[in-house]
């Protein structure tokens, strides 16, 4: 058993930094050695220390950032490596989920950028602010890329959509000037997600906000309304019409929502549209 005086001595020893401004814990996190991270934190290693040199990660460019002036937190390093266990260990031993790197990037911004639902939930459950913005103005919600692989990985898209849903349900503010909001809205219409379609519509504060999402076009000039009709979701169609969706807007080949409903023999939706 280690008494308080001995613990202070050990803490001073484990937090010594080398000439590159790295502590032993920093190297353990970088090498993703969970056992050493456990050992060092047990003896008082500072989990909020920032590393300073070429081990840092640039969120915007996602490559090794060779600059001695740029410093990142150990938690950000763990998250950027998608290491849930080490991220959890750091948090359990005092790592602040809201301390940012020198470019304003918080661990949650990294998790969002990489589509890491489990790590994002871990961070939010431990106090991460969902609306803190990076220096470039991006909030975590708007760091999410729904289609990072060009739409060729459905499972990946679903996880990222779940992350969008989680952040919005956790209080993330919806930006009706960001095209990603349009992308999210159309995606949820395609996926028959009535709850999220309603949540985005209800977040609109004025006509311009509603117009921004209801008039947003996907491939083939389709609106969210067209996708909802194609999916046969009468409830979502009725909701969009209630909020002013342009019922006569023509998608590719001049098709309106009524054309899509008739083509698929959705009698109830045809009646709703007429």
TrEMBL record:
Top-level taxonomic group: Eukaryota
SMART domains listed in its UniProt record: ANK
Keyword Repeat appears in the UniProt entry: yes
UniProt key word Protein biosynthesis: no
Keywords attached to this entry: ANK repeat, Repeat
PANTHER family named in the record: ANKYRIN REPEAT AND PROTEIN KINASE DOMAIN-CONTAINING PROTEIN (PTHR24198), ANKYRIN REPEAT-CONTAINING PROTEIN-RELATED (PTHR24198:SF165)
Protein's recorded name: Uncharacterized protein
